[in-house]
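User: Please predict structures.

Assistant: First:
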Amino acid sequence: MNAVSPEKPMPFPSVSAPRPSVAVWPWPIGLGLLTTFGLLSALLGQHGVWLALSWAALSIPLIVTVVCLIRAWRRPSSKGGLS
């Protein structure tokens, strides 16, 4: 029951079910491993292929972060207005 209409019960707001941890963690773990590989390859290999691998491995997490931030800023907030 509610104050506006005493004969009708008030419906609960729809809440999305929490995602299992298996669905949440693969991207952060992958980006963390890629960053670790990039840092180690930059530290241990100073020339040639290692230099290119370190640049690529450290650039990919940065690009993914920028893309996700741009998408989040363009999407309206669930609280109304832009986030």
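Second:
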Amino acid sequence: MKIRITYTAAEAASFERVRAELMQTVPDARQHTSASPGGVKVWYLTTCSKTKREDK
């Protein structure tokens, strides 16, 4: 499962509440943040892990 949430500084408080609930629901998930132009922040939550492919 992959979730992407975009938010602005004005929405930061609401985002933090949602992020906290998601992290309680799926505590082993990885999270990553980035910023895009215009002050929009992006937060990613990933529950699946990448596996290395074996060369055959």
